[in-house]
Amino acid sequence: MINFFKSRLLLKTPSSMGEALAQLVDRYRIKGVGKKDLLDLQLYELLEKQLGYELPRAIACMVRLSFSEQCHIPAKRLIHICGLDEQVLRRERVLPQRPLDAGSAFRIVIADPWRVAFSEFAARGINVSVASASQIESAWAAYFRVKADEARQQSEAAHNFLLERLVKDCEALGADEFSVKSASSTRYEVQANKKTYSGKLPAGLSSRLVVAADNETALNINGHTLTAQWRDPSQNKHLVVSWRKGRVAIDERRISASQKSVLEHSDGPYEQSNKTVLLVEDDDRFGLILCKLFSSKGYRVVRKANGIDALSWINSAIEEPLLVVCDIHMPGLDGIELTTKLRQLNCAMPILMLTSDDSDRVDIDAAAGGADLVVRKCSSPEILLAWSENLIQRFQRKPDVLEHVH
After folding, report:
1. What band does 12 get if pLDDT is binned at 50, 70 and 90?
2. Which of 31, 76, 308, 399 is most buried when burial is the number of CB atoms within 10 A of its CB?
3. CB 290 within 8 A of CB 281
4. Looking at the predicted structure, is the pLDDT value of residue 126 above 90?
5. 269: which residues sit within 8 A by CB, 6+ positions away?
6. Which of 117, 127, 120, 226 is closest to 168 using CA atoms?
7. Per-residue pLDDT tens over the stretch 322-332
8. pLDDT single digits (tens) 215-232
9. Contacts 24+ apart (CB under 8 A), 98-101
10. Which helix (H) or strand (E) holds 178?
């Protein structure tokens, strides 16, 4: 094989990947390749098998870029800084990587220089290098595997918590089992005290119970063993989930987010477990003060720096927070706009708004948007906390845990 670096000066600067690959076929004297009969991707894959690292190294020299021999799993932070969707980056074989020096936020590794405007990145001081398409794809595949594992673990943790809540509420009614009518149903029923209660399970949790029944495997939930069985196995109907009597202790420390009860309304005793306060404040110093203030009273504080992030968090949360404390003046989606959108989504939690503006117009707009109270930032923190707990106590009611059917 001819060493590419001894002959690179003989190559013309190609105008496309197809032209570059054709030159390499000629330069390396690779026989049996019908250049005109193969798509660029097919020809690239064929050459990559035969040339290995020599292929991306040659392409890098053609466009006067550096060659990257190693590709690492991209960090979420770097993907965010890059400003492009991760699926688009993967499709175009573009891989954000840690910078080689402190002068830039990231660098990118590409496979096809003619599909990426790498000169624009270079103009921004971002280093661009070339690697093989298979290396870049391997790094992306690993990234999405890790992401899928994280999502699965989070989903499983949320389902475990929901099952704990369901078992606890069922036992409060004197029941030690609940049933699901069929494999395709997400509705369940609880029989207790000559009454029937019903609720709705998340589809993922319902599927997990079906799998447990089909495989005859028990579910171990925080030291409690749940058994799922079909009362009518031939038809996959009437799935019954049962357990030994005894209270399930819900460990609040294992809950990563405010999570919604599986049940829909309860006539039995209920202990409030959600103590999450959503704080929306773009001022880091003031936000830190409020976080410490609420944390000192036993509340779990989720802080977001703007209305867009807060709205996204609420949309993805399993359970509404006890209270939203929101600054009015913020970039992007301000506090009043956020409040209006939350009320349009039928979010019922109390919303306390903060402002340093003394104008009556602010109070009028906040009230029209659906806020419950406006507090000036110049007020004492104890006043803010007192009003917050007042709102929580007035709005706090028994959650929709079990729905009495008849």
Report:
1. low
2. 399
3. yes
4. no
5. 172
6. 226
7. 999 999 988 88
8. 888 888 766 789 999 887
9. 98/72, 99/127, 100/127
10. strand 177-182
pLDDT digits (tens, 9 = 90+) for 288-320: 888 888 988 888 899 999 999 998 888 877 678
What structural domains and CATH numbers belong to the chain?
4-64 (no CATH), 67-131 (no CATH), 151-265 (3.30.450), 276-401 (3.40.50.2300)
Contacts of 180 (CB under 8 A, 6+ apart): 186, 187, 188, 189, 201, 206, 209, 238, 239, 241
> Residue 41: helix, strand or coil by DSSP?
helix
Angle between helices 335-344 and 360-369 (to 10 degrees): 20
- Sheet with 323-327: strands ordered across: 300-304, 276-280, 323-327, 351-355, 373-376
**Mean pLDDT computed over 107-126:** 85
Structural contact between residues 304 and 313, judged by C-beta atoms closer than 8 angstroms? yes
Six-digit token string for 341: 């959108």
What is the residue-averaged pLDDT of the chain?
A: 79
What are the tokens at 359? 């104008």
Q: How far apart are CA 256 and CA 236, in angstroms?
A: 34
Report how far apart, in Å, the C-alpha atoms of 27 and of each of 3, 6, 114, 388 are: 10, 11, 20, 75
108 alpha carbon, distance to own chain's centre: 24
Nearest partner of 205 among 226, 235, 234, judged by Cα: 226
On whether the CB atoms of residues 55 and 43 are closer than 8 A, the answer is: no
DSSP secondary structure, 308-375, as one string: HHHHHHHHH-SS--SEEEEES--SSS-HHHHHHHHHHTT--S-EEEEES---HHHHHHHHHHT-SEEE
What's the pLDDT band for 87 if we cut at 50, 70, 90?
A: very high
3-state helix, strand, coil in the chain (%, to 5): 45, 20, 35
For residue 283, is pLDDT > 60? yes
Place of tokens 């570059």: 20
Rounded to 10 degrees, what is the CA torsion of 41, 46, 49, 53? -60
Beta bridge partners of 108: 96, 128
Token digits of residue 137 = 């794809």
